[in-house]
Amino acid sequence: MGPAAGTAHLDVQGLTVAFGPILAVKNVSLTVREGETLAVFGANGSGKTTFLKGIAGLLPLAGGRVVYRGEDLSKLPAHERAARGIRYVSDRSRVAVRMTVRENLDAGAWLLHPSRREAARDRVLSLFPVLGEKAGEPAGVLSGGERQMLILGRALIGEPALLLMDEPFLGLSREVRDRFVAVIERTLKGRATILMSEHDAETAFRLLDRHVIFRNGVVVHEGTRGESGDARSLLALLYRHFRPGEDDSPRDERRLRDVSRNREGK
Fold this sequence. Notes:
The chain is an alpha/beta fold. Helices cover 38% and strands 25% of the residues. Helix 3 runs parallel beside helix 6 and helix 10 crosses helix 11.
């Protein structure tokens, strides 16, 4: 069940991001309510990552506004947006390999009062027991899936109010992916506002309240969880938008599903 209707937590108004003469995101507007999870779908190069980075302040805006909790953040740098509870997590995020797992987590707690940091760290380590077992070891010894746990844990320790997740399930085994979903459901769902760009529609469907589809830098479709029906129907919808004009037969749905699964690690 999605969050109740309420005031906008995030209001994106005409957001435009350009790389030189190329408009990567073109005049996109949308509103996200507090506690809502919005899945952002789109093929590679569709603009979904650029859209999230524009909200996070990691890319400058060529136009439009990012209004968060009633405050216009459009001209604020990324660190000041982070100080307001916004976190950006990407499959391309890095860990400090020479620092211990514990030190990496502590780096994400810089906004918390010192008296709260130990309890916050212990809470994150309880969510990812394998990190607790390696808390005193350099992060460089972690596997790929464990590093992604650390990256998510580093975001969670700061108790984000708005979490921007860029392909969080990319390259993860099914076991690790299911762990991620369970952690998000337990700690964030309905509490934090989440924007999540993803190719894995089946996993994203487990979390989303609404979804949008990007193509060529613009939103071409918006829908709710109820309108999606089920994960299979969502896959068919995405295929129609990724391959406009082609028949969305069961064979084509399987092809899209296989593309998603082929992105998983072992």
